[in-house]
């Protein structure tokens, strides 16, 4: 699951539910043992609540989705470079495909890591030089020692990845927060557009604070200061507690519900839903909270008109994390852009409609390199 400001509260509520169910089950069993609650129904209820806490995923996942033919899995490359950064972070950069192919740098969204690009790596690396990297603090990339998780920091990290991508101009592909990083890169390094960067692909992303372009944006904007930001700061301080809550929600299967609601539209496979859920559980809650706070300060509206390279704007037709109107706005203000809508698809259309996604990326990249 991609962590965006609007769904952080949803995740938090399901995590509290998970703790409540476990605590309630233990309490019922204890009271039954002490004979304060008498009868087999109390014993059964308590046992079911505890068992659901640790094994509910094995029931909920088959009920939600059927298995597919090509399910995603963790796939990493043997061709790896580790990039130390001045702030103490170390970037994991992996390479797939022919060395002389058109390089495409894939920047993932906030929450998972570069293994989210399973389908893209398989479907694009036959003709393109596919380069993926883990954002600092996620996957195999070490977090910065100064706790700087700003989008400007990530844009500078992206510039370092471009520097090792080879001699050919690269195409920058960013999903969700990865797209925000690409836009910030364009503002910080405008001289590289057209020379080192041949084009951009912005997928299910936005040009401003994502709170303004998500579903129920008016409500979420009103909750940002009094509720959302305090919860994020609390998560940073109490991250081990939230880490435990996250894994409880993963094991009981409720995490799949939040992943389904925020990222998919119902045509995803069981393996895709399971993989996305596991990836969302692996990220450190403290790191995720810091990055989410950074997104609340994001605004590259004025940058759009300055981007002088071809841009492909892509969005799932039913995306609720970044509604399609955000892509419409970017398409209207980018000087050289085209728009592709993935149907049916939500915020995770890159998995759910992976073939459509790969075909659109391949067509655009071929045009940029011709």
Automatic annotation (TrEMBL):
Alphabetized UniProt keyword annotations: Hydrolase, Membrane, Transmembrane, Transmembrane helix
InterPro entries: AB_hydrolase_1, AB_hydrolase_fold, AB_hydrolase_sf
Annotated Pfam families: Abhydrolase_1
AB hydrolase-1 domain residues: 103-208
Spans traversing the lipid bilayer: 7-30, 42-64, 231-251
GO MF terms, alphabetically ordered: hydrolase activity
Protein name, as recorded: Alpha/beta hydrolase
Species name: Nostoc cf. edaphicum LEGE 07299
Lineage, opening ranks: Bacteria, Bacillati, Cyanobacteriota, Cyanophyceae, Nostocales
């Amino acid at each position: 699951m991609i962590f965006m400001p609007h769904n952080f509260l949803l995740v938090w509520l399901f995590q509290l539910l998970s703790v409540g169910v476990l605590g309630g089950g233990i309490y019922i069993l204890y009271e039954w043992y002490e004979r304060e609650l008498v009868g087999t129904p109390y014993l059964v209820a308590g046992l079911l609540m505890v068992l659901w806490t640790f094994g509910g995923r094995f029931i909920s996942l088959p009920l939600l989705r059927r298995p597919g033919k090509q399910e995603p899995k963790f796939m990493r490359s043997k061709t790896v470079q580790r990039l130390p950064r001045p702030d103490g972070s170390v970037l994991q950069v992996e390479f797939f495909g022919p060395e002389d192919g058109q390089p495409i740098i894939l920047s993932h969204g906030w929450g998972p890591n570069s293994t989210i690009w399973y389908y893209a790596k398989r479907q694009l690396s036959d003709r393109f030089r596919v380069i993926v990297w883990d954002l600092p603090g996620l996957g195999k990339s070490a977090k910065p020692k100064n706790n700087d998780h700003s989008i400007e920091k990530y844009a500078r990290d992206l510039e370092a990845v471009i520097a090792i991508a080879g001699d050919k101009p690269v195409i920058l592909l960013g999903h969700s927060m990865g797209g925000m990083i690409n836009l910030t890169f364009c503002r910080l390094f405008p001289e590289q557009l057209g020379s080192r960067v041949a084009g951009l692909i912005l997928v299910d992303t936005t040009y401003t604070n994502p709170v303004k372009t998500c579903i129920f944006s008016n409500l979420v904007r009103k909750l940002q200061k009094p509720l959302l930001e305090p919860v994020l700061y609390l998560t940073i301080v109490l991250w081990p507690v939230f880490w435990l809550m996250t894994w409880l929600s993963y094991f009981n299967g409720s995490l799949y519900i939040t992943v389904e609601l925020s990222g998919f539209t119902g045509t995803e496979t069981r393996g895709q839903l399971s993989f996305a859920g596991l990836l969302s559980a692996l990220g450190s809650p403290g790191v995720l909270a810091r990055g989410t706070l950074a997104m609340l300060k994001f605004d590259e509206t004025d940058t759009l008109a300055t981007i002088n390279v071809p841009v492909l704007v892509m969005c799932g037709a039913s995306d609720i994390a970044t509604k399609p109107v955000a892509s419409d706005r970017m398409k209207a203000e980018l000087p050289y852009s085209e728009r592709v809508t993935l149907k049916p698809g939500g915020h995770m259309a890159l998995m759910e409609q992976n073939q459509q996604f790969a075909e659109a990326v391949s067509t655009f990249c071929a045009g940029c390199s011709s």
